[in-house]
Amino acid sequence: MKRQSRAGHLRGVREHFYRQVVDEQDDKPLRVLAYSLVPSPSARPDEDWGTLQAEADQLGYAIAARLHDVAVPVTTTYFPASSASQGVYTPPWDRPGWREAERQLREGLADGVIVLDRHNISSDDDEYHAVIKHLGEHCRALIHLVISEEPVAPT
Question: Which stretches does DSSP call E strand in 8-147?
Answer without folding.
Answer: 31-38, 62-70, 73-78, 85-89, 112-115, 142-145
